[in-house]
């Protein structure tokens, strides 16, 4: 039986940074806006796949590849008390707190703790789907 390798938060940050070079503007409320904008997760998708520019939406493969997205984290924004799955935190930071993709990648690099999933509480939310 072969062991599958999953990637942690530092690699996710690197994928976000790489995707930022492909779509230089930041999107809010969707993975992609037009041909030149992506949110933080959209940038990671962009780096992971060769995506068409016609607005096609990515699959949920990013959740499998980066199993760290299933860990529960507290929102790092000052005064925010939310605790969500990391995927939802990234969307929350991007859309609600308007953190830049570079700020999100910096936070992932500094505060990542591996890739082991953590069970959510019964009141936890699931990562949002967009589109």
Description of the molecule:
The structure is a single chain. This protein has 131 residues and is mainly α. It has one domain (9-111). 37% of the residues lie in helices and 9% in strands. The chain is built from five helices and five strands; from the N terminus they run H-E-E-E-H-H-E-E-H-H. It has a three-stranded mixed beta sheet with strand order 1-3-2. A two-stranded antiparallel ribbon has the order 4-5. The chain starts with 8 loop residues before the first helix and ends in a 20-residue tail after the last helix. Residues 114-131 have low confidence and may be disordered.
Supply the key terms.
5 helices, 131 residues, two-stranded antiparallel sheet, 3-stranded mixed β-sheet, mainly alpha, disordered C terminus
Task: Write a concise synopsis of the structure shown.
The protein has helices spanning 9-22, 40-48, 61-65, 86-95, 101-111, and strands at 25-26, 32-33, 37-38, 72-74, 83-85. The protein is mostly helical and 131 residues long.
Instruction: Count every helix, treating DSSP H or I runs of 4 or more residues as helices.
Output: 5
SSE pattern, N- to C-terminal: HEEEHHEEHH
Q: What proportion of the residues is helical, as a percent range?
A: 25-40%
What structural class should be given to the helix and strand makeup?
mainly alpha
Shape: globular
Query: Order of strands in the sheet with the most strands?
Result: 1-3-2
The whole-angstrom Rg is 14 Å
Q: Tell me the number of structural domains.
A: 1
Distance between the termini: 37 Å
Describe the main β-sheet briefly. Answer: 3 strands, mixed
Let me know the number of strands.
5
- Beta-strand content: 5-15%
Unreliable stretches (pLDDT < 50, length at least 5) are 114-131
Query: For this entry, what is the oligomeric state of its chains?
Result: single chain
Chain-averaged pLDDT: 78
């Amino acid at each position: 039986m072969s062991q599958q390798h999953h990637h942690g938060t530092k690699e996710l940050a690197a994928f976000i940074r790489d995707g930022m070079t492909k779509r230089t503007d930041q999107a809010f409320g969707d993975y992609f806006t037009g041909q030149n904008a992506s949110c933080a997760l959209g940038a990671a998708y962009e780096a992971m796949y060769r995506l068409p520019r016609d607005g096609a939406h990515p699959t949920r493969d990013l959740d499998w590849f980066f199993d760290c997205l299933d860990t529960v984290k507290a929102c790092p924004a000052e005064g925010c008390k939310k605790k969500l799955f990391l995927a939802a935190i990234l969307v929350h930071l991007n859309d609600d707190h308007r953190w830049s993709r570079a700020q999100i990648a910096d936070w992932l690099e500094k505060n990542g703790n591996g890739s082991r999933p953590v069970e959510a509480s019964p009141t936890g939310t699931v990562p949002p789907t967009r589109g």
